[in-house]
Design goal:
mainly alpha
């Protein structure tokens, strides 16, 4: 008996969706992650719809209206964050080693900055507390027209960006890094901000 030959498939998944899927599942093996996702989809379909999944009749039009309104607002924050990221890298040169650490952390700004903040706050409140000097590029990141209080080890009452703004900022940093690592063509396709007529997801 001959073994069953599995077809080879090419699947397109945006980098942003792929990163979210890996973080949500904790799985980094491509085959296992896709297989598990398909299994869950089949299990859900075979189980049938439940009352939690159904929507009230006639709600689709209202949902579409609200999605358009909030998507437009979300896109404004996303674009502001993206432009702020480009402006920051234009004004301040993050050393390549530190930039590479951001890439190693999947361009998660919080994970990238946390070690710096932990070192700064180590021993806070003690008599001999002597925090290390943060690099100029990191201190500059805490200005209100970049990341504000998000990029400071101790919060103040200044600007604090929302999640969508941060996503735009992270995407800008990722696009710049990839254009260096893989060439300008790496920015084409899914990594570009969608045209204005398309609705950016939350």
């Amino acid at each position: 008996m001959y073994p069953t030959l599995m077809p080879k498939l090419s699947v397109y998944v945006s980098d942003e969706l792929w990163d979210k899927a890996r973080k949500a599942s904790g799985e980094h093996n491509t085959s296992q992650l896709i297989q598990r996702a398909l299994e869950l989809m089949v299990e859900r379909e075979s189980a049938g719809a439940t009352y939690k999944e159904s929507r009230p009749p006639g709600s689709e039009a209202t949902l579409a209206l609200l999605r358009g309104i909030y998507s437009d607002q979300a896109r404004i924050h996303l674009e502001r964050g993206y432009q702020a990221g480009l402006n920051y890298l234009t004004a301040y040169r993050v050393p390549w080693d530190d930039f590479q650490q951001l890439a190693d952390r999947d361009f998660d700004l919080k994970r990238w900055l946390q070690p710096w903040f932990s070192a700064f706050l180590d021993g806070v409140g003690t008599k001999d507390w002597n925090p290390p000097k943060l690099p100029d590029w990191l201190v500059s990141l805490g200005q209100d027209y970049y990341l504000g209080e998000f990029a400071k080890p101790i919060d103040g009452d200044g600007f604090y960006p929302n999640r969508t703004y941060l996503q735009g900022f992270e995407r800008a940093m990722r696009d710049v890094w990839r254009s260096v690592e893989y060439g300008p063509e790496a920015q084409q396709g899914s990594d570009q901000l969608p045209p204005m007529e398309e609705k950016a997801p939350f």
